[in-house]
Amino acid sequence: MEENLESVKDVTQITGLTEFQASKGLSEEESGRVRWDVDAANTTEQLSYLEAPRPFKNPNYVKKTSRRSKNLKAVLTQEREREKAERERRRLEKAESVMDVDGEQEEDIPTYTSIEAPPSLMPQRHYCDITGLEAPYTDPATKLRYHDKSIYELIKGLSASAVKEYLAARGVNSIVK
C-alpha cells in the first residue's frame, strides 16, 4: 500500500495531477470533470438551506396529536345552546335596565340555525295547481294556476267540481262561474 502511495506521489509531481486524480488513474480531461463534480458538490453544500437556522419556526411548538373533531350534529347543538344563552342574557339585561311598560317583546334576531325570520321582501312564488311546478300563468275563468299550455288544455277539460277541489287544495274558496 505504501508503494502505491509513493507511485501516486511521483505521478502527481510529473503530470501535475492531484493525488486523487492520480490514484483513480484519470486523465486530465476526466480529472477536469471530476474536479467540476467535486466543486459542484461543495457549492451545493454551501448553498443548501437544509442546515440553515429557521427563525420563523417556534422551537417550543408542540403539535397537538389529540385533536378531536366534532360531527355536524354536535356543532349545531353547541351553536343552538350558545344562541339560547345569548338570548337569555339579553332578556335579563333588558328586564333589569327598563321596566316593560308597553308590553312590546323584542324580536329574536334570525340566525342560520333559527327558523324564525321576518317575511321575505321578494314576491310570493306561485305554483301550478296540477303539477306543482312554478306557474307563470293563471286561467281567468277558473283562477287555477298552470305551468304551460299542455296543462291549460287539461284545465279547460276539467269539470266545475274538480276545479273547486283544486282551488280548495290551494286554500282558495271562490265561486266558479
From TrEMBL:
InterPro entries: INO80C/Ies6 (IPR029525), Vps72/YL1_C (IPR013272)
One GO BP annotation of this record: chromatin remodeling
Protein's cellular compartments: Nucleus
Region of interest (Disordered), residue spans: 75-108
Keywords: Nucleus, Transcription, Transcription regulation
UniProt biased composition (Basic and acidic residues): 78-97
Acidic residues: bias regions: 99-108
Pfam family, one: YL1_C
Residue span, Vps72/YL1 C-terminal domain: 126-155
GO CC, one annotated term: Ino80 complex
Principal subcellular localisation of the protein: nucleus
Keyword Transcription regulation among UniProt keywords: yes
Top-level lineage group: Eukaryota
Protein name: YL1-C domain-containing protein
Originating organism: Mycena sanguinolenta
Taxonomic classification: Eukaryota, Fungi, Dikarya, Basidiomycota, Agaricomycotina
